Amino acid sequence: MSVMRCTMKHVSQAKPCMFCFIERGAEIKRSAEHFLSRPVAKAFSIDREGGEVYRFNVGDTDPNVVRLNGLKRKAVCTDCNNGWMNQLEQAMPEVADWFLAGDRPLGNQLSLTLRKWLLTRHLLLTEIDGNAAEFGDTDKLDEDYVVPPSSLARAIYEDNLEAILEAPVALSRSTANLEFAWAFGHPRVLPEDRPHLGRYAATSVLTLREFQAWVTTPMIYDFEVFAPAELRLCAPDLRSADLGRHPGIPTSNDITVSFHGVDEAAAAFERLANMSEAEIRALAEGDANESPKGPASD
């Protein structure tokens, strides 16, 4: 599966903010986060007011037409939307300036800002296209889904630099002559006989005219990511002139995620599932009491 297309489903009011995890009950103000904000659209010369996105319901032959300024999701709270997320949006014109300059290094702060903004877009797509909001009730889904990378969402909210910088984020230059587009879905996965593992590696590609960004968020298992040669990791020393040109319309399975230790992990999960509560408690207490091992002496 390369791109998942689905309707926007109602999200229960009991669901917490996807970043700070605050419960959105009657006393919590909810907010609709636009997928493409006005500052970003203006910075990349995208017609947000008149632009349209064609989306398909399952089984439909005719698409629904959604305007870009109407593409949003009530997945965040007002404090997040009007606070740190708004700051990211306001900083994105600097990314556009960097991209147009060509020979200027991205820099530490702007690299971090860009990574965080791209990860928030990617996480929104897990709900818009990835059915992540329905993850707890997948038996009723007619479409595929991704497992929500909730720990990463929380890490972005907490400004956990290690988690943010470890996320596989790469950039390229699009030659497809698109004003605005995205692809979302499962990557190609290895081992090939475990295609369901794609649910654990949501992958998105965001195109804003020539600027193109690739994000994948593998979880649970150890992994390696294999990407097209023209992609460059988002890093402080990166110049936009160094970006390779990616031909054609991107899909999520242009990325390959190789998962390691799948059989071993499955066996461990099975052993854990068959343990009694007392055995699990004893195992946890044993791990907690084990002394940390220092470096070996000469």
Notes on the structure:
The chain is of the alpha+beta class and 298 residues long. The chain has one domain (30-277). The chain is 30% helix and 21% strand. Strands 5, 6, 8, 9, 11 and 12 form a 6-stranded mixed beta sheet that branches. A 3-stranded mixed beta sheet has the order 7-13-10, with no helix packed on it. It has a two-stranded antiparallel ribbon with strand order 1-4. The model is unreliable at 1-13 and 291-298 (pLDDT under 50).
List keywords for this structure.
298 residues; alpha+beta; six-stranded mixed sheet; disordered N terminus; disordered C terminus
Overall morphology: globular
What is the rounded distance between the termini? 53 Å
Low-confidence stretches: 1-13, 291-298
Q: What is the strand content?
A: 15-25%
Question: Taking all residues together, what is the mean pLDDT?
Answer: 83
Question: What is the number of helical segments per DSSP (H or I, 4+ residues)?
Answer: 8
Layout: helices, strands, pairs:
Elements: E1 30-34, H1 38-43, E2 52-55, E3 64-67, E4 72-77, H2 78-82, H3 84-101, H4 108-128, H5 150-157, H6 161-166, E5 169-174, E6 180-185, E7 188-190, E8 201-208, E9 211-218, E10 222-226, E11 232-233, E12 245-246, E13 256-260, H7 262-273, H8 277-289
Parallel strand pairs: 5-12, 7-13
Antiparallel strand pairs: 1-4, 2-3, 5-9, 5-11, 6-8, 8-9, 10-13
Helix pairs in contact: 3-4
